[in-house]
Design brief:
It comes from Theobroma cacao. This is D-aminoacid aminotransferase-like PLP-dependent enzymes superfamily protein isoform 2. Belongs to the class-IV pyridoxal-phosphate-dependent aminotransferase family. This protein is 26% helix and 23% strand. It is built from nine helices and 14 strands. The protein is globular, with a radius of gyration of 27 Å. The N terminus is likely disordered.
């Protein structure tokens, strides 16, 4: 039995010769063995002495079925994929410092796979809302991404004014009146190492996403997630490492947490325990994406009377009014 490994072709040999003394309790055999070419077998199984079988290789695909694409063919595939998988969001324009310009063809809105933001998560991002042809709080958000980049030890690809000009021009090229501008600063492409020392230069990407939907004040339910929270160092920077957030959202969806079921005397910023939070008269989620969204239930605890509260409605109205008619310090006009 120990000679079976040696009798197999090299590309099918499962056990090096030095391990063949362990084969006394293993039976290695191909089922319906059909050698088509190197690197491809129909099926190979390992059977233990207890007659249990476990599939090791089960592949009917030939390597020749995987095409070698030219650059033009790859671009055509990107276009076909974009046409076949249209989502709810419309991507109107993208800036890439790798391209050195702005593109409006969604199929070409790609970034290099060797960018350290892709394979190491070494990047930061931020978002600014587009409302009635104005960028809301753009300068405040630029300040934040610069702060995040500093925390992530990423050198800015351009000075602040150049970044601002690029972002405004990208929205201008998009012709988007209502939506959002999302932008990233990454360590840049270069290699697949851990350290960014091999990166050519940091990169800036920006994309304009159209969104004509109205902001929803409908109350939602939330659940306590089993996913550990990010440490403060990472929770206070807008890094692209959102896996804990993704897993928390998926867990809430699995528990059907994110489903449907509105004056302030003062504001206190403090640590709040879960028990204290669940006793709140009113609760809401606040962010640049959702603006203000009332929470009507946390786990099994109904918040307040279980309805959207008046403070949530008041805050949302204030923010929308500021977005539509606020001072020039928070509204940057887009020169379409």
């Amino acid at each position: 039995m120990a000679s079976l490994s040696a009798s197999l072709p090299k590309y099918m040999s499962l056990f090096p010769p030095r391990h063949t003394h362990h084969l006394h309790d293993l039976c290695v055999f191909p089922r319906n063995l059909s050698l088509m070419k190197e690197g491809s077998v129909r099926e190979l199984r390992i059977a233990t002495s207890s007659n249990q079988t476990e599939p090791l290789i089960d592949s009917t695909d030939k390597l020749s079925d995987i095409p070698l694409l030219s650059c033009s063919e790859a671009i055509e595939k990107l276009k076909q994929n974009r046409e076949n998988h249209k989502g709810k969001q419309q991507f109107l324009a993208m800036y890439s410092s790798i391209f050195g310009g702005i593109i409006t063809d969604a199929a070409a809105m790609v970034i290099p796979v060797d960018d350290h933001m892709v394979h190491r998560g070494h990047g930061v991002f931020d978002t600014a809302a587009i409302m009635d042809g104005y960028l809301y709080e753009l300068d405040q958000h630029i300040d934040r991404i610069i702060r995040s980049a500093s925390m992530a030890k990423i050198v800015l690809p351009f000075d602040r004014e150049t970044i601002r000009r690029i972002l405004v021009k990208t929205v201008c090229a998009s012709k988007c009146i209502k939506g959002s501008l999302r932008y990233w600063i990454s360590a840049g492409p270069g290699d697949f190492q851990l350290s960014p020392s091999g990166c050519c230069q940091p990169a800036l990407y920006a994309i304009v996403i159209e969104d004509q939907s109205l902001f929803d004040l409908e109350g939602i339910k939330v659940v306590t997630s089993s996913v550990p929270m990010k440490p403060p160092q990472f929770a206070t920077m807008k890094s692209v490492n959102y896996l804990p957030n993704v897993l928390s959202k998926m867990e809430a969806e699995e528990k059907e947490g994110m489903v449907r079921d509105g004056k302030l005397h003062g504001i206190r910023v403090d640590n709040v325990s879960v028990e204290e939070g669940k006793r709140a008269d009113e609760m809401m989620l606040i962010g640049s994406g959702v603006l203000v969204r009332p929470v009507v239930q946390w786990d099994e605890q109904v918040i307040g009377d279980g309805k959207e509260g008046p403070i949530s409605q008041m805050l949302l109205n204030f923010i929308l009014e500021d977005m539509k008619s606020g001072p020039s310090s928070v509204r940057v006009p887009v020169p379409y």
